[in-house]
Design brief:
The chain is mainly α. It has helices at about 1-45, 70-95, 100-110, 115-130, 135-145, 150-165, 165-180, 185-200, 210-230, 235-245, 250-265, 270-280, 285-310, 320-335, 335-345, and strands spanning about 45, 55. Helix content is about 75%, strand content about 0%. The model is unreliable at about 20-30, about 35-75, about 310-315 and about 340-345 (pLDDT under 50).
Length: about 350
């Protein structure tokens, strides 16, 4: 009976003993964690310029291997620094008109940091401006894969598509760009010009075609959105004026062209547009005045524009052809009635 009593007492005490042991284990664990934390703080060193905290050996102890995550972060930081230096050197070479060297350095920068979407976009810009449009599209695509919400890169890829004549792909990119960022005006403006280009300077008969009218109206809407965001954007003001001209809304076109010149009085395309509007409105004296002003300003303007754009499309500009066309139209304005008779004959 004594054994039975002792056994029952032991059985009743076991839960308490177990709970006590568990409490002691928890306390020891906490104490061990605190001790380890203090030890690590004493061993921690900062890597200059990186902000990384790495475990270092204490005097008298054997060196410890760096934790894998810390080593990985250190290598990543070093690669990023090297990549940034290569990118900077690439841009210097580009500004020195050393395109091949610039492209090679940018490719090396990407090898050091191939997840940086901006580096891929910079390389794509260089390839595009060097006339390597297919390679540019590949780099723009990689950049977008890493950062699909970039409206500027998507709009830039659209330009590369247009250079290859892929209008549908370009339109798709520009539409997406306007949806990704509804305040990125260059996408609105470029898409509007794309719609205008599709109309291809319609004749009087074609202007009544519903498809042509729809394209021009879409262009006007896009230009208007861009102007609402920035009412001093000359490209949008001029584009809408051009669209109004194709709709034979010459008074509205004149307002937009005048708004262009209020921002930039030497904006030659707007001067040319005004001359054409006044010519078609049979305000010949004003047409002659603007044609004459255009002849004084156009060459310098277009030469500077070509130099700034540095794009392959700039080589298509034919200043002599434009000059002869304006001279002919101005001559017609001097003798409008005689020119009308010649036309009838």
């Amino acid at each position: 009976s004594t054994q039975s009593t002792w056994g029952s007492s032991l059985a009743s005490m076991l839960p308490k003993l177990f709970q006590t042991a568990l409490s002691l284990s928890v306390l020891r664990c906490r104490a061990a964690v605190r001790a380890l934390s203090v030890s690590l703080q004493r061993r921690t060193k900062r890597v200059p310029g990186t902000g990384l905290a790495l475990q270092g050996p204490v005097v008298g102890s054997s060196p410890r291997l760096l934790p894998r995550f810390a080593f990985s972060r250190m290598c990543s930081s070093a690669s990023n620094i090297k990549s940034a230096n290569l990118s900077s050197e690439s841009e210097k070479k580009w500004n020195e008109n050393k395109a091949e060297d610039a492209i090679k350095l940018m490719q090396e920068a990407i090898e050091q940091n191939d997840t940086n979407s901006l580096l891929h976009a910079k390389l794509a810009d260089m390839l595009y401006l060097s006339g390597q449009h297919r390679s540019a599209i590949e780099s723009y695509t990689t950049s977008l894969r890493l950062n699909p919400d970039s409206p500027s890169v998507r709009a830039a890829r659209a330009e590369a598509y247009l250079a290859l004549g892929n209008v549908d792909e370009a339109e798709s990119d520009l539409v997406k760009s306007t949806k990704v960022n509804r305040t990125y005006t260059p996408a609105f403006v470029r898409l509007a010009y794309l719609y205008l280009d599709k109309t291809n300077s319609p004749s009087q008969k074609e202007r009544s075609d519903p498809r042509v009218v729809n394209l021009i109206e879409k262009a006007v809407q896009l230009f208007s959105k861009a102007i609402a965001l920035d009412n001093k954007q000359v490209a949008a003001l001029y584009g809408r004026g051009l669209a109004f001209s194709r709709m034979s809304k010459f008074e509205d076109a004149i307002k937009d062209y005048d708004a262009c010149l209020a921002v930039d009085e030497k904006y030659s395309p707007a001067i040319h547009g005004l001359a054409g509007c006044y010519h078609l409105l049979q305000s010949y004296n004003q047409a002659v005045a603007y044609y004459s002003l255009f002849l004084k300003t156009h060459r310098q303007y277009y030469e500077e524009e070509i130099k700034q754009q540095n794009s392959p499309t700039a080589r298509d500009f034919d200043g002599d052809k434009m000059l002869s066309d304006v001279l002919l139209k101005r001559a017609i304005c001097f003798f409008p009635h005689g020119a009308a008779r010649v036309g009838r004959d």
